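Table S2 (continued). Query chain:
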Amino acid sequence: MKKYVYILVSCAFFAACDQKEEAVYGKGNSYVKRTGETITKYTKALEEAPNGWLLTVYAGDNQQYGGYNFLVSFAGGKVKASSEVNTTETTSDYSLSFNEKAILSFDTYNEVLHYFVEPSFLNPHGKVGDNQYEIQSYEKEVFTLKGKRSNNLMTLVRFQGDKSSYLNKIRSRASQMKTVGIAPITLNGKQVNLVLHPTNHQFVISEGTTIYQKAFVYTDKGLKLYEPIEIGGKIFTEFYISDDNQELSSSDGSVKTTLVYTLPYNFQTKSLILSLVDDGCSSNTVFSKLYERYRNFTYSSASYSTSPQIRLGSDAREAGITFRFYQDATTRYTLDFLPVAGKENQVNIVEGIRSLNWNVFNNLYPIVEALIQNAPYEMTDIKGDGSQYRLTSAKNAQITFVTTPAIAILPYDFTRNRTMIQFATGYVSNSVLTVYNSVRSRTRIVNGARVKDILGNTIYFGKNGNNIGFHFYFTRTPTSGGSSSNVSSVYNIDFLPVPCNIAQMNMIDKGKLPQNTNWTAFSYLSSLIDTFTRNAPYTMYDDGSGYVLWTSVKDSNIWFYTYQ
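Corresponding output:
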């Protein structure tokens, strides 16, 4: 009996629902019918556009990668696509389905349409792109879409014109704007600054401390913002670029300004070497502190130590900042180098995107961030021949860099030669000698026997065999008696030039390396290594007697002699 009651109740419920639907939508207009009609309507619209559609895609959380042009055409459940970021045209499957709203899906892999979706080693989750779009509305031959994953709003507009010509124009515009500076404008008597971020397709408008940043997409007329920006009583939605690429104007023509392209240095094809340590040439306390904080780290049980020399500019056909590690690894973060209107000797540096191995070494981002935050930089050609520059922050004159010449001169070539240091009064300062005496001998257990290791008072300094650094020699004697033996250990360091003084040399701790022979057993010598590297750089003075005096630039009480 209960079974029949349930059936009767269910029938009554659905009958009531049908009656409510009919009351709202009319008899015969069920949910299934309505959704089916919507899908049919949208499919017909998509497939009956003879020249296809212009799909404006915004990628990333909060449109962090900006907007891009895709041209798509639909026919028989297939979609053909090309875009400004991919020169190929690819065909795959598409479908329309219905949930709460109609959903346009690109079902099978498409090299063009899945450009921002496809995962990679660098971006394991892709760039937060979409392959499913919820249709918000369809009015006047314009679909308004919302990415199911990104939640970004996008549009699908009937395209008119030649597809190849349009995409080529967009690509040409993007290339032209890669190194563009925009002159400030004046609104209500106040200066308003405009900055384009070419790599991320972001547009920044600022007035004093008020800053607005919006993603943009290039158009055949210029560029269009993801959302309007209101500043100084003016609303900006779109900007036009003149045919000669020399002027930027608001869409109504009421605001116009100049575009500039002159940089004091071509970072797209060349690069500069900057040092992150305090070497007496640069005033970069901010960066030296960041370097010391982030230089050493561990990833997946492997230890890494960062070289203080960074490459700024072009490297492997990408412009950005490149870091090198002493453990035979490299990473890069792309940046945009832009002119500053009215100041031809300055370069602005703005945010780019992660590049080579950055997902592994992203702990270094605070250094990148500081470089961006203190831009623009005034560049001075020190020698007038383009071999060496001084970069000074226009925001903080206390931040300066002196670049290392491409062919740097070392006062002594330790990559090929070696010298010796004798730990004795008159040959090293008392401070150095005190540290040496504190680690000179150590008693410990080796292979089950107690031994005493005594560090010799002379060490090799420089290249010895395949290693470059400190070479220590010990006499090992069993405490229970017996014959002594000789033991050695190596710790590799980096000898770097000081860009403003050819008589000086810097020393950098390379960190944990497999080439550091027996270092695990003799790591107690770290305090001695640290005394040398922490007090670098050193001024070297050769008096012609065969001895070279090294005096710390930071502390004149730290000195030592080397001899061959």
